[in-house]
Amino acid sequence: xxxxxxxxxxxxxxxxxxxxxxxxxxxxxxxxxxxxxxxxxxxxxxxxxxxxxxxxxxxxxxxxxxxxxxxxxxxxxxxxxxxxxxxxxxxxxxxxxxxxxxxxxxxxxxxxxxxxxxxxxxxxxxxxxxxxxxxxxxxxxxxxxxxxxxxxxxxxxxxxxxxxxxxxxxxxxxxxxxxxxxxxxxxxxxxxxxxxxxxxxxxxxxxxxxxxxxxxxxxxxxxxxxxxxxxxxxxxxxxxxxxxxxxxxxxxxxxxxxxxxxxxxxxxxxxxxxxxxxxxxx
Length: 282
Known about the structure:
This protein is α+β, with helices and mostly antiparallel strands. Helices cover 33% and strands 27% of the residues.
């Protein structure tokens, strides 16, 4: 799969004041820090039309960084970088990703050195999350799951598919399901997103007593960018998605041309193959 080519705006050697450090005198007196930032943002339209509103004002970003470093106090520059990256991504929606380096020229280690620095890269990720329920007030549970994601600042729900009624899969002696798909952007890692989804399920009274059994709320990560994860606790893409019409049908409504990173087939192709196989069996 081809790697995406990014447009970037560079900010270099921005000098700012901050009270960050593990020693009390650092928090009290403060010191100079230096910040480099690479802003990943599509700027072609701005370049073609000479229009600042189609880009990001690097002056505003620079002042935001300076204010953030002055107004907050952290023991670790790791924390300063992490918190500031999130704040910048939330403040400037056109920014898809940011690389931040925070340098500490006067790090008090008792040895001569030019600087100590922390560099991180953070950004928005595309995720597709399947939602389902077959116990109790199914519509309410599904809406609860959607609203829980909408309420988070680090998640942006972009689209929700039609909610469809489907027969149970695996264990068939249980009530019919309502199923749908959520298209979202998130600043969370796959593991962090998994934890959020499991906590939301628990808030809905989800019990994991029977594999493929009935549940009040089911939230599964189907895709996360084009990442492939094969761990005991988390598999992405969802390992059985191509055999599940209740996953593929709502997913095809939102992203029919999305390509599976392993099978190299689009969602639409996988759905058609599954439908043809079902027809052949009948």
